[in-house]
Structures are given as C-alpha cells and as structure tokens.
Amino acid sequence: MNPRPPFPSMPFMEPFTPLLRLFQGMTRKGPGSEASTLRALALCPLPPHPAVADLGCGSGASALLLARTLQPLQTPILALDADGTALDDLWESAQAQGLLSQVKPCSGDMANPDIPPGSLDLLWSEGSIGHLGWAEGLRIWRNLLRPGGVMAFTDATWFEDNPPSEARRAWGDWYPTMGTEEANLRTAMDVGLDVLGHFRLPSQDWWDYFDQAEARCQKCDGDESLAETIAGMRGEMNLYRHTGHSYGYVFYILQKA
Ligand SMILES: C[S@@+](CC[C@H](N)C(=O)[O-])C[C@H]1O[C@@H](n2cnc3c(N)ncnc32)[C@H](O)[C@@H]1O
C-alpha cells in the first residue's frame, strides 16, 4: 500500500521549524510557475516509460504537474522531501486531483536518497539544489541518472558579475557559493553533463511566490515566535524589489553524457 500522512520529517529539518510554519499551506515554496515547469519539460528527451523523481519537491507544485502531464506515459513520480508536513500537503492535493496512483511521496534526504544509482531517466528539482551546493548537488544527482538521463532544476544564479553590495551581502549569507550561469554551466560540463538548455525564470514567477509568502506573513503577524522569520522574509522581498535585476532563478536542463 502507498504511504499515507503523516509523513515523518528528517531530523536535520528541526532548525527550519519557524520557516516551515510560516510557509504552511503555500503551494510553492520558491519562485516558479506551471509555464516555466512545462517549458523545461519540453526540453527533456524521455524514453517511453521514464523513471522520474522530484527531489526537494515541497508540497508538490512541480511533482503534481509532472504527474498530470506525463499521465499518458503511466509513469509514477517519486516525490521526495525532508519536510513531512509538505509531503502531507502534497498527498492531500494528489488525492483531491485523483493523482495518488501517479505520485509517490517519500520522506528522505536528497543528498543520500534511497534511489538506486543509474536508475533515473528524469531528475526534477525546483529551488532545492542550493541546499547541497551546486557542484556537490550535480555530483550526487548525476550518479542517480542512467546514461542519457536528464536532470532539470532551478537554482538561484547571479545575472551580473558585480551585483549591488546589499545583494552580495545577503546572498553571501544565504548561498555563499551561488554562481553565474556561465560558471555553473562550466562546472556542469566538467562533471560530465551536456547542456540541453537553460533559461531565466520571469520575475512574475518570483512575485507569485512572494504574494503567497506575504499573505502568510500577514496571517502570522503578531506571532512573536515568528517575528524574526517574517522580518527576514519581508527583507528578502524588499531586496528582490531593489536588486532583483542582478540575480534570479535559472532553469538548467542537463544530460548525463
Ligand atoms: C525552496 S523549497 C522548494 C520546494 C518545491 N520544490 C517548490 O518549488 O515549491 C526547498 C525544499 O527543499 C527541501 N529540502 C531541503 N533540504 C533537503 C534535503 N537534504 N533533502 C530533501 N529535501 C530537502 C525543503 O524541505 C523544501 O521543501
């Protein structure tokens, strides 16, 4: 029988409890959109019955869309995250959308997932590789792909060599190894990945995410235990408003050579 809620959380998620509480119920926990997911999917060559996993799937925005879009291929999507509460939400949405037979939520660590090496045709991930670091993430995830398998994922990326100092300072804390598109693609090719495509997410993908985040901030305003987290989230939105021209999310579509 397929696993059901409640899904366990991995112990290393404990320090993120306030952020997970703030993000409760959000359908996207990072910038993205259906249009961007589908644009990336169209760049992925797939065999007739692909093995697919969405790592760091959150509450399932992309996993559910992949399941719907790939339904004719009758392929189950392994949807893995370390946050059990997000997987509970994913399960509820999958049930409501009649997709439970196509999506398999799984609590785990995307740095060491319970997926056999060389078994995936498509590894999906939106907004999560930064938790592993670009080079380390590529190395671990490439190992999960079959030869010719594809990984498609978004990551925060510098758009300028000399970004404004406030952006440099903030991202230096959040993601010290954040690269430019050029540097990231060079590293990908160095570890044996061919570049099938890459594109920047439109800023609307950020504002749609921030709209959901701001709605949650307003709902949680006054909860002292979340005050610091709310201030941090609003600082992030403000930073994007003023310096978002210098960074953003890029979708990378890479194939195991
Ligand atoms: C920015 S959110 C993106 C979630 C989802 N892909 C989306 O776009 O809505 C990053 C996700 O990575 C998950 N995560 C962080 N570290 C992880 C790890 N080591 N293993 C599995 N999931 C992890 C978090 O729980 C969170 O759901």
UniProtKB/TrEMBL annotation:
Give the protein name, as stated in the record.
Class I SAM-dependent methyltransferase
Keywords attached to this entry: Methyltransferase, Transferase
Its lineage opens with:
Bacteria, Pseudomonadati, Acidobacteriota, Holophagae, Holophagales
What's a GO biological-process term for it? methylation
Q: Which residues form the Methyltransferase domain?
A: 52-149
The family database entries (InterPro entries) matched by this protein are listed as:
Methyltransf_25, SAM-dependent_MTases_sf
* Species of the source: Candidatus Geothrix skivensis
Any one GO MF annotation of this record: methyltransferase activity
State the CDD domains in the record: AdoMet_MTases (cd02440)
Keyword Transferase appears in the UniProt entry: yes
